Amino acid sequence: MRDDERDQVALLIHQSTNHWYQKNRGFEVFPGEAGDCRLFTDVYEDLDPGCCLVAVADDGGIVGSCFYHPRETHVSLGIMNVHPGAACRGVARALLDAIIKRAEGMPVRLVSSAMNLDSYSLYTKAGFTPLALYQDMQFPKPPDTGDVPGATETIRGATIDDTRQMADLEMALTGIRREKDYRYFITNQQGVWHTLVCEEGGTITGFLTAINHPASCMLGPGVCRNWQVALRLILAHHKRAPGRQPVFLVPADEAGLISRLYRLGARNLELHVSQVLGESITTTGVVMPTFMPETG
C-alpha cells in the first residue's frame, strides 16, 4: 500500500466488511463513515510501516488488502478484505500466500470469524490449525463493577515502565512477544487507548487494553494468569467508562469466567477462532485477543 492509497484501503475495509455482515448477519460493523476505517491504515502504518499488501485491478482500483505484523516470535495476519465485486477470483488466497512467503518460516497467527466459513476455509486450506475458540461478548447494560471477592491485587493504569514485564508475562503464558505494541498503547498519541494492569506485590498478574474509536470500541489485547484477574480487569474498564459498551473476546473454555459474565448480564455476539501456521505452544492463563490491532 502506498501512502496515498490509505483512503482507498479504508473504503475497501468499510465496504467489504459491511457487505458481508449486512448480507449474513443483518447489521453493519462500521455504521459510520468510511473515513473512520482510516484507523486501520493509520495505526498499522504507525506500528509496521510498509506491511500492507494490496491487490490492484487492471483499471487501477484496489480490490483486496491485507495487513501483516512481524514480531519477535511470529508474524500476525491482520484484517483481510476483498471487494464484493472481486469475490471468488483468488484475491484473498494470493494475498495470504504472499504474506506466508514474507514470514520466511516464522509461525503465522490470526484470529478469524468462526461464523464466516469462507474465511475459515481460506486459512485451513492453506494449512492453518485452529488453536482456541473465543466468544465475542458485550454488556447491553452496565454491569455490577464490584471487585471479585477475595482479590488482593491492585488495578491501576499502565506506564511505560510496565511494558517489559507485560511482554514477559505474555511470553511466559503464550509463547509470543510483542512489546512494542504495549509501548504504542501506553504512549497513546492518538488519544484512543487505555491500558490497565493488575499487580500484586510488584508483580503484574494481568493486563488489558481498551480502544474507544468510531471504528473500534473493544477491550483487548489482554493476558491474565487466571480468570479472576481477567474479570476484574474487564469490570475495571467498564467502571472507568460506564457509558460505553465495548466488545471483548474471552476463551470459550474458561467456564468460570464465562459463567460469571453471564450472571452479570453479558451476551454473546459472535464466535472467533485463533489459528496458526507453524509451531505454537500450549497457552496457559487467559488470553483476550482483539481486532485492533491484530498483532497476536
Secondary structure: number of strands: 12
Low-confidence stretches: none
User: What's the oligomerization state?
Assistant: single chain
Q: Helical proportion?
A: 25-40%
Number of helices in the DSSP assignment: 8
Shape: globular
Q: Give the termini distance in whole angstroms.
A: 22 Å
Give the mean pLDDT.
95
Provide the β-strand percentage band.
Answer: 25-35%
Compressed to H and E, one letter per element, the order equals: HHEEEHEHEEHHEEEHEHEE
Report the C-alpha radius of gyration, rounded. Answer: 19 Å
Strand order of the largest sheet: 1-2-3-4-11-5-10
Please supply descriptive tags for the structure shown above.
alpha+beta; 296 residues; 12 strands; 8 helices; seven-stranded mixed beta sheet; 32% helix
Can you give a write-up of this model?
With 296 residues, this protein is of the alpha+beta class. Helices cover 32% and strands 30% of the residues. It contains 8 helices and 12 strands. It has a 7-stranded mixed beta sheet with strand order 1-2-3-4-11-5-10, with helices on both faces. Strands 6-7-8-9-12 form a 5-stranded antiparallel beta sheet, with helices on both faces. Helix 1 (6-24) crosses helix 2, helix 5 runs antiparallel to helix 6 (179-187) and helix 7 (227-240) packs parallel to helix 8 (255-263). The longest helix is centred in the first third of the chain and has 19 residues, at 6-24. The chain is globular and about 60 Å long.
